[in-house]
Structure formats: C-alpha cells, structure tokens
Amino acid sequence: MVSSDEIASPQAGRPTLLEVDERSATRRLDNYLRKILKGVPKSHIYRIIRDGQVRVNSGRVKPDYRLRYKDKVRIPPVRTASRDSVGVLDLSKVDLIQTLYEDQSLLVVNKPPGIAVHGGTGLAGGIIDLLRAERYADSFLELAHRLDKDTSGCLILCKTPDCLRSLHASLRRQKESAHVYKTYHIIVVGEWEGGVHEVKAPLKKTRGNVVNRVVLSSSGSPARTIFQPLRSINGYTLVEVKLMTGRMHQIRVHAASVGYPVAADRKYGNVSHNQNLAQLGIKRQLLHATRIVLQHPETDALLKVEAPFPDDFEQLMPAKPKL
Q1: How far apart are CA 139 and CA 82, in angstroms?
Q2: What is the gyration radius of the CA atoms in the chain, in angstroms?
Q3: Is 233 helix (H, G, I), strand (E, B) or coil?
C-alpha cells in the first residue's frame, strides 16, 4: 500500500491500493481519481466507479463520496489511449510553484524550470495538472499562455472563463497594443558586443525527422526580438529581451542567429559550452520570463508582476542587477 502523496504506477493486470493522506481527506472520490489518474478521460473514471472497479475500504461507493483520512482506495489497472500505464502525480512538485499574484480571476505563478506547463507524451504532469490537483480541484483554472518546459518565470493562469477570453484576445494583438508586455532575461554564450540589438527575421517550423525545431526562413512567420545586453562575466552575458511577436522558440533562435546562443540550450546552443555547464549542474537553457505588465482583464488596472531569478542564473551571474 502506498500513500497518495507518493509516486505509484498501477501495474498492468494488477490493481493499486492507495491510502488517503491528510491533504486528500474530505475530497470527493471523483476529483481524487482525476488527480491520481493523469490522462484518463473523466467519463472512464466515472465508469470504473459505477462498475465497482474502484473500491473504498473494500466497498462500492458513489463518485461524490467524501474521502476520509486513512481510507483504503483500490484502483484497477488503467491505461491511457497511448497504451502507457497511468501514474500518480508527484504532488511534492506543487511546493516548487510560487504564487506571485492572485485575485478572484487571475493567477500568476513563478514557473520552476524542468516542469512542463501541461502534461503530454512522456511528461508525468505539468503546472496546470499539479495546481488543479492540489490547490484548485473544484475550481476553473486554465493556462493563458505557455512557456517551454525548461523556461522559468512568470506564467499567467485564469480562474474564470471571461478572464481567459479577454487575455487570449490581448495576447493575440500584443504587437499592436499596450495590453500585455513581456520581458525576459537570458544568459548567452559570449561577451555581447555593442548595445541594443533588434532582430527581425521570419521563423518557420521544420517538417521532417527533426521534431519541434525552428529555423530562419523567408517563407516563415514575421518575428521581431529586441536584445539589450546588461553585463558580461567569464565569457557569458546577461541580456534583457523584449518579444515583439510570440513565435515558437523565438528568443532562442534569434539569439543563436546573431552568434550568441542561449547558455545550455541543447537544441540551438553550443555543444562544448553545454558540456561545460553540465559539469556545473546547469542542464537547461537559461531563459527566464522575468516580468509581465498587463491591463487587468476585468478591472482595467495596470498590473506588473516580476519573478526573481532562479538559482542557476545566480550561479552564472552572482551579482544580480536590480530588475
């Protein structure tokens, strides 16, 4: 038997027995299973409850049963549509997600590196899954935008459908309006020469054996990025970045195109430098969503939220400048 706080995977052909912990006590059974069985359709969860395949303390219960501390929950072997065994979310990761701002309609968190914004192929669970499971089980919560798995910093989520619709509209017209401003910081390989540098180069996703790779292409979508080098230390430069468009991997590709790849970027970066950084324990691209300024979708007030630099930024750039 395992606690629901532990990582467990129902084995093929064998049920799993979970013991309800204090944090899950009083939660409805259906919501508890939605948190536990990542990737399983809600309809299937209700079916296995109705069929009696899910048991609590060896007895059949209804979906709205309120769990009690130390209840024993039997979960049958379940598979996703991709035929991969379903695992239990690692809820300890939710403690890594820092809330930067929250009100009745809006949530901004400091996304840690190494956790995807949502679950997917090969991913055990993302920011949205963890927050829904542990903090917002019975509430509306949706991502307003995305960040790459290894990118850290400000991530906006909406707690109402109206907020989501309004923010999506603002993000779509970002380049010609003042509704949303995003500021990023990167650490690049090399000591950046000169001052502010603007890159205007269209980007296109490649089609072929290379998955999720972006290249410069005259037939691609227009893309514009403004780089402002701040300071250099030991062959690396801290750079402030403003996105004027929002293309996939835009900052990383534009930085590499002018000879300053993002440090530790495994896809667009410098292999030898990446190996050196890996020896220091830095294994993700040093890209951080530092600041977001937006017009609140419901109050129209100007909201400014900042995320402090993560530890790996501090490691390579010890004296942090004032943001």
Answers
A1: 28
A2: 22
A3: strand
Residue 68 CA to residue 56 CA, distance in Å, equals 10
pLDDT tens, position by position, 187-241? 999 999 999 999 999 999 987 655 679 999 999 999 999 999 999 999 999 999 9
Q: Are 196 and 227 in contact (CB under 8 A)?
A: yes
- Delineate the domains of the chain, giving CATH numbers in brackets: 1-86 (3.10.290.10), 92-316 (3.30.2350.10)
What's the rounded Cα separation, in Å, for the pair 164 and 154? 16
Burial of 89 (0-12, 13-18, 19+ CB in 10 A): buried
Q: Which amino acid is at 249?
A: H
Torsion-angle region of 13 (φ positive above 0: left; ψ -120 to 50: alpha; else: beta) = left
pLDDT digits 0-9 by tens, 139-159: 788 899 999 999 999 999 999
Active site residues: 148
Close Cβ partners of 51 (under 8 Å, ≥ 6 residues apart): none
